[in-house]
Structure formats: C-alpha cells, structure tokens
Design a protein that fits this description.
The protein is of the alpha/beta class. The chain has one domain: 3-Layer(aba) Sandwich (Rossmann fold), CATH 3.40.50. The protein has eight helices and 13 strands. The strands form four sheets. Strands 3-5-4-6-7-12-13 form a seven-stranded mixed sheet, with helices on both faces. Strand 8 and strand 9 form a beta hairpin. Helix 1 packs across helix 8. The radius of gyration is 17 Å and the shape is globular. The two termini are about 20 Å apart. The relative contact order is 0.15. The N terminus is likely disordered.
Length: about 260
C-alpha cells in the first residue's frame, strides 16, 4: 500500500475558499514517527483534480523511489470547498501556499519540491517565485506542459471553445458547455506577471512538454526556459499529448529521476 498518512489527514488545510481536500502518499513501509523523507507537492490543471491522471500515477512513481507526495484539489475542484466559477489564479496560489505551510510543518518531511501540470504548472512556478524571498524555498520544480497561455487566451477573448469580449467579460463563460469560468478569472488572468514572478526562483527546474499537445503550445515551456536560464532544462516528450496518456511512463520516469537528483537520493 502506497496511499497512507491517515494520521496526517486529521489535519485541516484551509485556503481562501475553505477546506482543501488532499491525499498523502508515502513510500512503502515508511513510519512517520521515526523516518524522514522528501515530499513533492502535486498540483493539477484547470477543471481537473488530485485523483485524475497523471497525479495518482506520479504519486505512486515517487513513492517507489522513496519520495513522499501530497496531491490536493484546488478550490472549486474535486472535494475541496468553493466553486469553479469563482476560481482565480491568486486563489489557487493561496491554496498552494497553504499546502506548502502544512507540509513544512510535518516533522517527517526533510525537503520539499513542487510539481504542476497545465494551469497547475503556472501555480507551481508562481508559488516558487513568491517563496524565493523566504528562508526555505522549494528544492526543485517540475512543470509539465505549463499553461501560461491562459493569459493570452483571456486577453484574446477565447478560452477553450468559449468566446467573449476581453474588455468587458460576462459574469461567466461555459467551457465545453460544462464548466463555468467567472468574470474575475477572465479579468485578473489578463494582468498576471507569470514569467516575472516565476523568475525569482533560482533553483533547479525541469520542463516536460509533449510534442502532440493540442491545448498548451510548446512556446509556453520555451518561454519558461528563457525565463529560468541555465538552471532549467526542457525535455520534449515525443508523441505525448496534453493529458499525459501516451508516454506517461516516460514522464513519470523523467520526474522521478529529476527529484532523486535534487534530493540527492
């Protein structure tokens, strides 16, 4: 059994919209009362959750390498409090920061890394940048198809299949006819300084991006690479799509190898 940490689940993590649902995955045989290990915070993409791929698979792969992880639902997603319509990037950064504070309080956690997929990659990168001025910063960051294109999408008035006036967005739009995305998100995302904020983080970064990604263009990872400079590496995964279903083992393998090096395991 890899999913464990029941003692930790008694703790309540709160973000700006209320309780944050989360799961901790520990290496097999790990005893939180006497053992120590690093932990990676896993952040899912927009309209996704902690229980959708590739998050559970990443957690399992990390555990097999002796690395713990915590994956959580952003506000309005999965089992966390809040509503998708009122989600914003700043609220998600606040969620990530709350999880960071919780993880740093766990006595068995030695070091902490961040990983984000799609919009979660934007949150991971900006959270790392915000943490750069603090005494304890992430040991390493992995960004999988980081969706910085959300800013251009909102500025251009087209988000997924929904169109709107970017200068005067409606109360909400419906993406794919299913998910409501509110005016506050559409307005505030246009004003984000994604790369400027992210650049403050000077630790090691791994960028993973599939060359068959039809949602987040490759230029997003390429711009991150320019932003981070020599302490970042971009690995293009041939044949991989945005949902990480075609070359998932390769993506997990690259992620695990990166964190093993970062944590000196």
């Amino acid at each position: 059994m890899f999913l464990t940490g029941c003692q930790s689940q008694k703790a309540i993590i709160r973000g700006p919209e209320g309780k944050i649902a989360y799961k901790i995955t520990l290496p097999e045989g790990f005893d939180i009362t006497k053992d120590h290990c690093p932990m990676v915070i896993l952040m899912h993409g927009i309209f996704s959750s902690k229980d959708y791929g590739p998050m559970p698979q990443l957690a399992k792969g990390l555990a097999e390498a002796g690395i713990a992880s915590i994956r959580f639902d952003f506000n309005g997603h999965g089992k966390s409090d809040g509503h998708k319509q009122y989600m914003t990037i700043e609220k998600e950064i606040a969620d990530a920061s709350a999880v960071w504070d919780y993880v740093r309080s766990l006595p068995y956690v030695s070091e902490v890394g961040l990983l984000g997929h799609s919009q979660g990659g934007v949150i991971a990168s900006m959270t790392a940048g915000r943490l750069a001025s603090e005494s304890t910063v992430p040991a390493g960051v992995v960004l999988i198809a980081p969706g910085s294109v959300i800013k251009e999408a909102c500025q251009g008035g087209k988000f997924f299949n929904a169109t709107f006036d970017p200068k005067d967005p409606p109360e909400y739009i419906r993406c794919w006819g299913l998910y409501k995305l509110g005016r506050e998100y559409l307005v505030t995302t246009q004003q984000l300084d994604i790369f400027g904020t992210s650049a403050a983080y000077k630790g090691p970064v791994l960028l993973l991006h599939g060359d068959r990604d039809g949602i987040v263009p490759m230029w997003c990872s390429e711009q991150y690479l320019k932003t981070y400079g020599s302490h970042a590496t971009l690995k293009v995964v041939e044949g991989e799509n945005h949902t990480i279903t075609r070359r998932r083992k390769q993506v997990i393998g690259e992620t695990v190898a990166f964190f093993k090096k970062v944590f000196a395991l």
